[in-house]
């Protein structure tokens, strides 16, 4: 399994009601807090990343699934 950084993503953590922008790093098949040298990079600009969501029957009603830098999330 190769290392990966998903960058420029809108991140929904499944716990917070707020979406954040940032990167998700995966090293040796697990989430990592820091980027890994030599990791593949996937630009997720305009996409939502839901790291660690394993319950496919999750209701995220009222979530603003898009985020604009000119407009704050509700």
Predict the CATH topology.
Urease, subunit C, domain 1
Please work out how many helical segments DSSP would assign.
0
CATH architecture designation: Roll
Biggest sheet record:
5 strands, mixed
The CATH superfamily bears the name Urease, subunit C, domain 1
What sequence of helices (H) and strands (E) makes up the elements? EEEEE
Overall SS class: mainly beta
Q: Report the end-to-end length measured between terminal Cα atoms.
A: 37 Å
Instruction: Please give the domain count.
Output: 1
Give Rg in angstroms: 13 Å
Helix content: under 10%
Shape: globular
In round numbers, the mean pLDDT is 81
By DSSP, the count of extended strands is: 5
Under CATH at level 1, the class stands as Mainly Beta
The fraction of residues assigned to DSSP E strands is 25-35%
List the uncertain runs.
69-74
Written account of the structure:
The chain has 74 residues and is an all-beta fold. It has a single domain (1-69), classed as Roll (Urease, subunit C, domain 1), CATH 2.30.40.10. The chain is built from no helices and five strands. Strands 1, 2, 3, 4 and 5 form a five-stranded mixed sheet that branches. Mean pLDDT is 81; it is low at 69-74.
What are the defining features of this structure?
single chain, 74 residues, mainly beta, Urease, subunit C, domain 1, 5-stranded mixed sheet, 0% helix
Question: How would you summarize this macromolecular structure in one to three sentences?
Answer:
It contains no helices and 5 strands. With 74 residues, it is mainly beta. The chain has a single domain (1-69), classed as Urease, subunit C, domain 1.
